Amino acid sequence: MPQRIIFNEEEFAKNSLSATKTHIYTAQEAVIIAKYLSTQLPEHLIKPTLIHILSLTNPQFNPTTRWQLMNIALANAALPLRSHDPVPITQVDLELIRKIAATEDSQKILFTLLVIARFNRINLSVTTQPTRVYSDKRLRCNTPIAEVFRLAKVHKNKIKEVYSEFHKFPELLELLPGKKYDVKHILPFEPIPTDESILLVHDFDNLILYFKSLEDKTIRECRKCRHIFFSKDWRRSVCSNCQVAQKKIAFCSECGRIFERLKSNQTRCERCQKEVRKHKDSKLPTGTTG
After folding, report:
1. Inter-residue contact 76 to 33 (CB < 8 Å)
2. Beta carbons of 49 and 257 less than 8 angstroms apart
3. What is the DSSP string of 53-66?
4. Where do the structural domains in the chain lie, given as residue ranges?
5. What residues does 221 pair with on adjacent strands?
6. DSSP letter string over 232-286?
7. Which tens digits make up the pLDDT trace of 213-243?
8. Global pTM?
9. E-strand spans in the chain?
10. How far is CA 285 from CA 114, 280, 281, 290, in A?
């Protein structure tokens, strides 16, 4: 299974601290959480805190049976958190998508191919391989077809219908011999656009919502994590995940452990708060209460 593309690893880790939906974390996601914990906690607290977080959404999580995941996460905890540049989409891009693709499904697929290819060109080639020179100025996408359809939220039984449209434009595809739908896509878009962008894509998990947001004003982008969410309230600017993370989860100012806040101004976990109260009470004169 291809690795999940996470634009802002710090925001992902913060949201994981307060996640409530059932989710089994992959090694890639566990590494990101471990990297974030290493910036917030002393070394001896990283492992127990990581186990606690991985158990929040998966009560069956067992660090003994998942020892490989734990080893990978802890071995990479010292690496820096990464933040990828967003993918710009211009008006010219959208006009070309609508010109090539007539149906909604084929438009979704072409939009997805464009975002993946441009993400790779902007982030992977420029930031991680700055000395690499591209002799071919065309934009290419070699992502497996199944993954493209999954990201585009298009059912795989639509593959013949979608590619019957694309075959009208031979310059879009390079068919690999012996593999019916395993193709290299050559996209007729600018690798890095020079026009002003009308859309910046920050979230691959909800990729198609960006495409729909151009016409549907109830779809908006969270100002904290940049993820897309639905809201009919025009005043709302933060998604539900960030609201929960902001309200409930914090690191204790005394011991550094993670805890659930009961009040917005609470800075200590319950155990440390009791110790502080005991210490204050012991200093009070006999016969008085705190």
Report:
1. no
2. yes
3. HHHHS-TT--TTTT
4. 9-75, 87-216, 252-283
5. 228
6. S-TT--S-HHHHHHHHHEEE-TTT--EEE-SSTT--S-HHHHHHHHHHHHHHSPT
7. 877 777 777 777 767 777 777 777 777 767 6
8. 0.67
9. 87-90, 139-141, 173-175, 183-187, 197-201, 219-221, 228-230, 249-251, 258-260
10. 72, 11, 9, 10
